[in-house]
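S., here's the first fold you wanted:
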Amino acid sequence: MAELALYLYWTAVVTAPIAALLYWAYLASASLAVPPRWRPRRPPGPMSVSVPAAGPNAGLGRLATTFTVLTTVFLAG
């Protein structure tokens, strides 16, 4: 039983930083989704540009939450 507890502890120690990095990537994905501004060649006059709404990557958020839940389960086990 002690070997299982030690195994679960070290597994949680490994998964916790992975979850933290995934949450940082999730936060960074919102700012990286915005395209850079550049000046296109166009005739003079008014122009309207539609920029898609940038949001964080939902897949990274779910993956980070999954790793957080796994870490909690490993520590509770």
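And the second, which I think is the more interesting of the pair:
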Amino acid sequence: MNNSYLGFLLISLPEAFLIGILSILSVGKFSFFSENKKNIIRILIYAIISAALSLYFHNRVSGEESLLVYILITPLLFIFLLKLKLYESIIASIFGLALQVITEVLWLSFAQPFIASNIDFIYSNTILLFLLSLPTRMLQLALIILSYKFRIKIIDFERKDVKKKEYYIQIIVYVLSVSTLVFLAFLLTKMVIFGDPNEVLSIDGSLIRINIYLILFVIIILTLAVKNTTDYYKNKNKLNTNEFLQNITYISNLINEENITEAKDAIERLKTHLIINKNY
């Protein structure tokens, strides 16, 4: 029981807290932390509940099932505790999970040759497990600092004007692809870290690790694709806004010159253009 409490304080709680923050930042919700300082308390409450649930399900379901439980519960916690919208919660939780898997897999893949023979002993000792998780937590903390300082995000849900139908279709496709690959990376990493050494060697451990790295590479590419999609629609909207302002200036000049007929024609053309582009 003492080990459970210690594991909760040293491992589960910091992990949930950092991933919660990363999830929010990944969707560009920087104002979540700057507008209301109480949101930090909300993140902490989220982390406590998430870590407690993680600890509760840890010894009751398999690793694969616990991952699915995480995917189902985290968006609900984001909605009710952090007051995010449904689509924000789902996408933020998946991106948070992706960043968690990427950081953990990178470190564990590097450390695996050095800890393979003692992995069972390490995972049975809370202090050793805490020490093993420290590099991952430091990497996650570094990502948070860089993201917040330089306003780095995967997508930007604070910009209301980039919400187009085709944008969301592409985002859904990317998110489903990322979540599938995250699950595969999780399974392969579990096989390498926790699998029977003899079975892993018979399959060729190096080949499995190469597949893990390839999956991580594809996840990163898909994540960048999501960001590029957001940037595309953001820039597209800027162009539409500039074009609209130019038309307003042109019409204003026509009115000042008392060229009413041509001004009316320009207004009608602008109205037609806005109607056509309303559905895009």
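Why I say that: The two ends are 57 Å apart (CA to CA). The first helix runs from residue 2 to 26.

Talk tomorrow,
H.
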